[in-house]
């Protein structure tokens, strides 16, 4: 088992290294940006996949997140951890994508959501609880992921999604109840 002072030193080194990569990226260094991408891509893709329940859309949106990061990194002031800022950018890009997609689908096909079975078939790489999260209705899934996985508060979720705080809490409760039922049914 590693000594906590060794872990702290490693963590401080990684943060200093990341700060240097951020500074270089702000100055247009694409290699530094690539390092940031490689470090954070998997978590951002996982967030996109959980929220969108569609692997193809998750890949596209994840790429859009990093395009946005490249364009907006100059706005990162370091008042929070880079990963926190990155997740905020990702969440906003995902929610924007969902709004656009829903509006387009409603105009063209007059439908609200893809069938759950179709979404699950497209995601053979996920297992366990993630497989159940994908089955949740869209709003309940997004609130659940933002609250339980990403750690946002209901007030923040309500603001991001344009809903009342009580609606966010209700959607989270609905998601938990459905997940509990599905786990108990196994």
TrEMBL record:
GO BP term (any one): DNA-templated transcription initiation
Tagged with keyword Transcription regulation: yes
InterPro entries the UniProt entry points to: RNA_pol_sigma-70-like, RNA_pol_sigma-70_dom, RNA_pol_sigma70_r2, RNA_pol_sigma70_r4_t2, RNA_pol_sigma_r2, RNA_pol_sigma_r3/r4-like, WH-like_DNA-bd_sf
Domain RNA polymerase sigma factor 70 region 4 type: 129-179
Keywords, in A-Z order: Sigma factor, Transcription, Transcription regulation
Domain RNA polymerase sigma-70 region, residue spans: 36-102
MF (Gene Ontology): DNA binding; sigma factor activity
Family to which the UniProt record says this protein belongs: Belongs to the sigma-70 factor family. ECF subfamily.
NCBIfam families: sigma70-ECF
The protein, known as: RNA polymerase sigma-70 factor, ECF subfamily
Organism listed in the record: Thalassotalea agarivorans
